[in-house]
Design brief:
Layout lengths: L3 E4 L10 E2 L6 E2 L2 E4 L11 H26 L1
Antiparallel strand pairs: 1-4, 2-3
């Protein structure tokens, strides 16, 4: 999956915590951003890959369920 790291530009006194959108791990300095999930912030590329894989499996299972229901 293509993406890039984005640095967090927060002052040292900032108390908000940013967590990975997939696994929940705390993100301190930079996060991984991908175009397919523009609103999500991932701790590393592997979290984005797993989410994409799960979504494609979910999409495939929904398509199969629709086909079964139509017949």
């Amino acid at each position: 999956m293509s993406g890039h790291y984005v640095s967090l530009d927060l002052p040292w006194y900032e108390t908000r915590i940013l967590n990975c959108s997939f696994c929940g791990k705390m993100v301190a300095v930079q996060y991984w951003r991908v175009d397919s999930f523009p609103m999500e912030k991932f701790c590393e590329p592997s979290c984005a890959d797993v989410k994409r894989g799960l979504q494609s499996q979910l999409g495939n299972s929904k398509d199969k369920a629709r086909k079964r229901k139509a017949t």
